[in-house]
Amino acid sequence: MNAVLDTIFEHRSIRKFTEQPINAEQLDTIIAAGIAASSSSLLQVNSVIRITDPIKRKALATLAGNQPYVESAAEFLVFCIDFQRHIQMNDKVKPEFTELTLIGAVDAGIMAQNCLLAAESMGLGGVYIGGLRNSAQQVDELLELPKYTAVLFGMCLGHPAQDPQRKPRLSPQVIMHENSYQPLDINKVVEYDQTMMDYYASRSSNQKQSTWSEQITTKLSGESRPHMLGYLNGKGLAAK
Amino acid sequence: MNAVLDTIFEHRSIRKFTEQPINAEQLDTIIAAGIAASSSSLLQVNSVIRITDPIKRKALATLAGNQPYVESAAEFLVFCIDFQRHIQMNDKVKPEFTELTLIGAVDAGIMAQNCLLAAESMGLGGVYIGGLRNSAQQVDELLELPKYTAVLFGMCLGHPAQDPQRKPRLSPQVIMHENSYQPLDINKVVEYDQTMMDYYASRSSNQKQSTWSEQITTKLSGESRPHMLGYLNGKGLAAK
């Protein structure tokens, strides 16, 4: 093990923060870490909106489905797909999607994970906020995003005021396949369901009785933000 | 600075590898690092296909647009969106896209970046291979991906046999905005174009004369894998 692996394996999402701010040098390092990540064909198709306005923070906390840590975290960053930059530079640029939207989403994940690990390596903690997509259009308007730029997710960062347990994950035998796709070994999911039952029953706060299978069935049975296609279409970022 | 930041800021894509294999413990650590990353709503919607079959490696190197390091790297991993797993578990699961495909793409980026940093922290190097999407359907068939599972990108990993310079990036003043989207400061791009000209002219191999603006204009003027929408539709992963 080394310090990088320690940081990676110690990850827990942090949703409670002290009032201590993140200093300017730390923030610069976090952003620089994101920018240092790989970028598909060096296109650099992401922008990050740092939200310092307390009124916007409060609005975003509500729009994300009432997640108060969006308001209370020391920093809140919004990661966007951004092809507006390229189009401003040259009117020959004619983005074609779905491919470019995929690049924007993958590269945002790569970039954001560098930001989160950089923060965690400095003793900070954070959590991804996909809930911004609950109200993508309203978030978009609040941040005055132009055409060809779209909101993907947010990230709360700050000094941790909680010490949650690490959440168990599916086994590598489920996630990794060799040479071709291998059918699911349902026994591995049964084992994992038991592990998650034990985890939820024993964790220090927010105890519940539920398996992973039950949770994902609930999550994936209803509608999952069906407005997202219309939103991306409206931004010029879908289905061409 | 700390060891995590050092690893993040020392990143260069590595495309030449020695013949030394990655040992089983290292590979297990790399995969475990990916699995330890954040997962949207703990859905865990990604699979990784490890390619050990030399015939498949050779075919993938060609399908990726003739990238020989896909064949020669010690390890080649293919990152996929995978909702097949969830659908197998419960027929009540009815994935809705575009949202879930976005989750799959963002989470694949987050997971893969943990894998790459874990590898880099152990003295290994690697490179993302978006070129697999050049021939998404053929790659899909080669890996026998079922419905609701789609190829996103690959990753070569191995012991570096080259020591390239770090590629300059756009300035943080271009990437980061505060509270609302800020128009592009074209002077920053002019500066960056000069920096990239100098970088390309001075680097040890593959010297060329080109600015970033010229490159991205070329990249974004033609068609960008227009088959991707049809591919995702065919997998049940688009436009609903």
From TrEMBL, chains A, B:
<keyword id="KW-0560">Oxidoreductase</keyword>
<keyword id="KW-0285">Flavoprotein</keyword>
<dbReference type="InterPro" id="IPR029479">
    <property type="entry name" value="Nitroreductase"/>
</dbReference>
<dbReference type="GO" id="GO:0016491">
    <property type="term" value="F:oxidoreductase activity"/>
</dbReference>
<keyword id="KW-0521">NADP</keyword>
<keyword id="KW-0288">FMN</keyword>
<feature type="domain" description="Nitroreductase">
    <location>
        <begin position="10"/>
        <end position="159"/>
    </location>
</feature>
<dbReference type="Pfam" id="PF00881">
    <property type="entry name" value="Nitroreductase"/>
</dbReference>
<dbReference type="InterPro" id="IPR016446">
    <property type="entry name" value="Flavin_OxRdtase_Frp"/>
</dbReference>
<protein>
    <submittedName>
        <fullName>Oxygen-insensitive NADPH nitroreductase</fullName>
    </submittedName>
</protein>
<dbReference type="InterPro" id="IPR000415">
    <property type="entry name" value="Nitroreductase-like"/>
</dbReference>
<comment type="similarity">
    <text>Belongs to the flavin oxidoreductase frp family.</text>
</comment>
